[in-house]
Structure formats: structure tokens, C-alpha cells
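Trying the structure run again after the queue cleared.
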Amino acid sequence: MKATDARVMTLDQIDDEVLKLKKEQFNLRFQKATGQLEKTARVKQVRKDIARIKTIAAEKAAAKKA
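Done. C-alpha cells:
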């Protein structure tokens, strides 16, 4: 997911997206542990997406308070 996509989302949509990505991250970790993971780069990509979206959510929350 690109940052521009996340910036147009509302905070509720961002929370839903983070939840979805965390579920995917869990599934990827499980696949890695069982040796079924094919796209190992996806683990890093999901982790970065979560961080990117959380950063944008924090920016939006700070802007709302100010």
C-alpha cells in the first residue's frame, strides 16, 4: 500500500487496514514456521505497510488535536 492511499482513508478505515495487515502478518509467520512460505519478501513488505499506516494514523490524530 502506498502512503497516498492511506492518507485519503479515515481513521476507522486505517484501523481496519492495520487489523487486516496484522492478520496477514500472523498468517505469514505461521507459514514461515511450517515451511510453506513462498514469497519471503512479503513478510518485510507487510511489516513496513503496518508501520507506514500507523505513522499516518498518528499524524492524523495529532492534526485532529491541534
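Residues 27 and 37 are 10 Å apart (CA to CA). Worth checking whether this holds up in the mutant runs.
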